[in-house]
Write a structure and sequence with these properties.
Elements (H helix, E strand, L loop, with lengths): L1 H8 L6 H21 L8 E2 L7 H9 L6 E9 L4 E6 L2 H5 L8 E3 L5 E3 L4 E8 L16 E13 L2 E10 L18 E10 L4 H20 L7 H8 L3 H13 L3 H20 L5 H20 L3 H11 L5 H13 L4 H14 L8 H20 L3 H11 L6 H19 L1
Parallel strand pairs: 1-9
Antiparallel strand pairs: 2-3, 2-6, 4-5, 6-7, 7-8, 8-9
Length: 415
């Protein structure tokens, strides 16, 4: 934005109205870019005749129906005071106009944000409230929190950020069924309110965007207004990759996840649209690997396996190793099956096909197989496997440690 302002005020032949109009367009382009790069399912636009309702948002994102909502508490937080009101009528809750909670229109039809105001919605709901599908004693009502805030307007379109969270509650007397139970679900969406027909300005946005892409591919310099969206075209991917790797080296796993997930979500959208360049695929898979690594270090194995499984698509041995390690560490029942399958595939290779990498992978699989035998309580079988490894330079140190561990297990069971 600073560069935009500097470029504007360097020009002396513009009137103040020109400055305002140009700045207005630049703000619109920035927000429209972010809006257009959301998943199309969540590109919700309102206008004076059509609303973006709370019910529409809940149904699109969480597949919640009107009969599953019980009450809504609205908290309006402005500069002077914080006020709240409770609504129990399902029709009123479902048809609540989200843009109307943030935007004001005067008697002349002019739109503005409520100055300094944020609005928080707390929705109580319970899936299948009128059904008999699940009668578990832990099926109590849950809460969705939606935080609304204006994030800029331009060209008679106004944008509102909806930050959404479902808190994670332990159910049934705090029994823990999954390791990620203490992690809330979060989501964010950018909503648009068009005070007039947006067709022309959306077309202008696409023209600017397409021209910028063409010039970048052709190696041409960008002019206005393409320069205004140039910082957004990279979506800070390089910045997030750099800082993700930097904090990962410092073992700041949660911080690293934030950076790498930014890259993942950005590149995933391009992948879904079949617009992901070949060189960006490396960053996509590397980000998935790093996210999986971090979650594994935090012992959140279910999440780790989700991202590590994506990495398997590129067929790297290193990705398989980390995926299998995560399966074994989490005592996943698929671990032994996958290891045996991999060993079977390696047994079909010709001797000339055994590279140093393949040989190293072969030893790794055998060590993991024997390790699982310990978890399965088959100590005799595991001991026999590790004893054979004592004569193998690649496996001897690991085998010695595991044999000592087996010895300690037997002593502890005897006592």
């Amino acid at each position: 934005m600073k560069n935009i302002l500097n470029s504007l005020f360097k020009k002396q032949d513009h009137t103040n109205d020109d400055y305002v109009d140009t700045l207005d367009f630049s703000q619109y382009l920035s927000n429209e870019f972010k809006f257009q790069h959301q998943n199309p399912k969540y590109q919700l636009r309102a206008n004076p005749n059509d609303k973006v309702t709370l019910g529409l948002l809940l149904n699109r994102i969480f597949d919640i129906n009107q009969n599953e909502v019980s009450d809504l508490y609205i908290i309006e937080d402005n500069l002077l005071e914080k006020t709240g009101r409770l609504i129990r009528d399902q029709d009123i809750i479902w048809n609540l106009d989200l843009c109307d909670t943030i935007l004001l229109k005067d008697e002349h039809g002019k739109i503005r944000y409520r100055y300094g105001e944020n609005v928080m919605l707390s929705i109580s709901y319970r899936k299948h409230m009128d059904g008999n599908e699940d009668q578990s004693i832990g099926r109590t009502k849950n809460i969705i929190i939606i935080y609304l805030r204006g994030c800029g307007g331009g060209k008679d379109t106004w944008f509102i950020r909806a930050s959404i969270m479902i808190p994670a509650f332990a159910l049934e007397d705090d029994k823990t069924y999954i390791r990620t139970q203490n992690q809330p679900q979060t989501f964010t969406a950018l909503l648009a309110y068009d005070n007039t027909d947006p067709a022309q300005r959306i077309a202008e946005y696409h023209t600017v965007y397409n021209n910028a892409i063409k010039k970048i591919k052709a190696g041409e310099s960008l002019g206005e207004p393409e320069l205004w969206i140039q910082p957004l075209l990279g979506l800070n991917g390089g910045h997030d990759l750099y800082w993700g790797n930097k904090v990962l080296q410092e073992k700041r796993y949660w911080d690293a996840i934030v950076y790498f997930e930014n890259v993942y979500h950005t590149l995933r959208e391009l992948w879904l649209k079949n617009e992901l360049p070949d060189h960006a695929q490396v960053a996509f898979y590397d980000s998935c690997y790093s996210i999986g690594w971090c979650y594994a270090e935090l012992k959140l194995y279910e999440r780790a396996l989700f991202y590590l499984e994506i990495c398997l698509w590129r067929g790297n041995t290193a990705d398989k190793v980390e995926y299998i390690n995560c399966l074994v560490q989490s005592k996943d029942v698929r671990a032994m099956w996958l290891i045996l399958r991999e060993l079977q595939q390696l047994s079909q290779l010709k001797e000339t096909e055994f590279t140093d990498e393949i040989i190293s992978y072969y030893h790794f699989l055998r060590r993991r197989r024997a390790y699982i035998l310990i978890d399965m309580g088959k100590l005799d079988d595991a001991e026999a496997e590790f004893t054979r490894m004592l004569d193998e330079e690649a496996n001897k140190p690991f085998a010695q440690r595991e044999l000592e561990y087996i010895k300690q297990l037997r002593i502890s069971t005897q006592s």
